[in-house]
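ok, trying the design again with the full structure, not the truncated one.
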């Protein structure tokens, strides 16, 4: 079949695409705590089962975040073609982040205005989920004799690490290379960009210790905050310049993230903050503990061991100058960097579809932060995975979040043409 027919059929279903996106926005799947997961999965199951998909609702029982009050529900829908072949899987997260301040429209109404659909999750990423569903439905309706299978998953908790979503499904074999050969995650990366992967992450908590004492005689105690101050001062002097000098071949966007970075997420030292209704002064006490949480983002050219050693070396240097310096460094969380090869089959198929629909070569990018590809890569052992979807990344998590209807239509065309090139064997 000529691809023009697929594209024309997608244009005919614009109203369906818009209505589906609005319906998804109207289910307020806020995370945390993780509300209405079951409702949105049941809504999608009803739609997809009626269109020939076999659906499975899976609760990530016992996963991080799962509870009887806030169960972590996920949906996997699969539609088989008439011939054996490979499986193309579209994975979208169903959760949205908190609303926050500054909205001028109802965040859960799905207002349509000037070619845009507004709402929390419109671009991140209910618009992308809707686009992949319309693409799969159009493709399967127009070319029912296709080879292989299409899967659509709607998964929980991406915004909080994905442990009750893609990680759980990957641990239970749903993303293994024997079952799934191509994965597209329709995160809002813009309709002409292909995201190949992400940088690595190391989170750790550093605690420095001191000795409690009276604040009027600090020399009788040992101030843990001063020890931490020395650590932060050394970071300013040596670590931050060293990180800025480490650059990468990864095409990270924005370009400011094409280097190693470190954020100090929090500092806590000394007494707890006093209750708001307490009208007295704090007591004069020398702090015996100070904690920071660091968020180090590393490059594909770096090894996690070296990243940790670099920080330990800094602590050793501080310790050499401060006799009473004692500390604990606790690992919290780590993610390896990943980057799919630009000549991987799914990348080539999407790139050809972008060229055909938009007349441009796609821009290949890498995300500064991680998303669910990390679990598909590490647990699922799947290297043929990208993020591609409609929407402007900068609008994610913002007030008055929106997605452009024309962008969604173009992305839907790209996804349908990608299915055609990966799941048909003739005439393309
Ligand atoms: Zn997202």
């Amino acid at each position: 079949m000529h691809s023009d027919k697929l594209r024309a059929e997608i244009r005919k279903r614009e109203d369906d695409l818009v209505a589906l996106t609005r319906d998804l926005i109207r289910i307020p799947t806020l995370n945390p705590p993780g509300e209405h997961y079951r409702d949105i999965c049941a809504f999608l199951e009803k739609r997809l089962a009626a269109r020939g998909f076999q659906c499975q609702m899976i609760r990530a029982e016992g996963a991080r975040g799962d509870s009887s009050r806030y169960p972590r529900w996920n949906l996997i829908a699969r539609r088989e073609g008439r011939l054996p072949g490979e499986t193309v899987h579209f994975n979208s997260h169903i959760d949205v982040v908190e609303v926050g301040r500054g909205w001028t429209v109802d965040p859960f109404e799905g207002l349509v205005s000037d070619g845009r659909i507004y709402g929390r999750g419109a671009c991140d990423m209910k618009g992308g989920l809707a686009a992949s569903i319309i693409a799969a439905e159009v493709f399967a309706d127009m070319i029912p004799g296709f080879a292989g299978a299409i899967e659509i998953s709607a998964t929980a908790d991406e915004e909080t690490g994905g442990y009750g979503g893609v990680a759980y499904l990957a641990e239970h074999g749903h993303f293994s290379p024997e079952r799934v050969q191509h994965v597209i995650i329709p995160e809002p990366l813009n309709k002409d960009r292909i995201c190949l992967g992400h940088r690595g992450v190391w989170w750790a908590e550093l605690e420095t210790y001191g000795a409690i004492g009276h604040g009027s005689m600090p020399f009788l105690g040992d101030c843990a905050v001063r020890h931490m101050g020395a650590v932060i001062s050394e970071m300013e002097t040596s670590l931050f310049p060293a990180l800025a000098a480490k650059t990468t071949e990864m095409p990270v966007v924005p370009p400011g993230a094409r280097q190693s970075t470190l954020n100090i997420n929090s500092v806590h030292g000394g007494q707890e903050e006093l209750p708001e209704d307490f009208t007295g002064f704090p007591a004069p006490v020398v702090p015996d503990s100070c904690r920071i949480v660091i968020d180090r983002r590393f490059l594909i050219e770096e090894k996690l061991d070296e990243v940790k050693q670099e920080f330990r070396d800094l602590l050793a240097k501080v310790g050499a100058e401060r006799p009473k310096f004692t500390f604990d460094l606790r690992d919290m969380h780590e993610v390896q960097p990943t980057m799919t090869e630009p000549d991987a089959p799914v990348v080539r198929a999407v790139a050809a579809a972008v060229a055909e629909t938009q007349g441009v070569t796609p821009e290949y990018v890498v995300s500064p932060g991680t998303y669910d590809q990390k679990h598909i890569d590490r647990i699922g052992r799947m290297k043929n995975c990208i993020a591609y979807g409609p929407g402007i990344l900068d609008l994610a998590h913002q007030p008055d979040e929106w997605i452009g209807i024309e962008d969604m239509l173009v992305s839907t065309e790209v996804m349908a043409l990608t299915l055609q090139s990966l799941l048909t064997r003739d005439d393309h």
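Keeping the full-length input from now on. The chain is about 35% helix and 25% strand.
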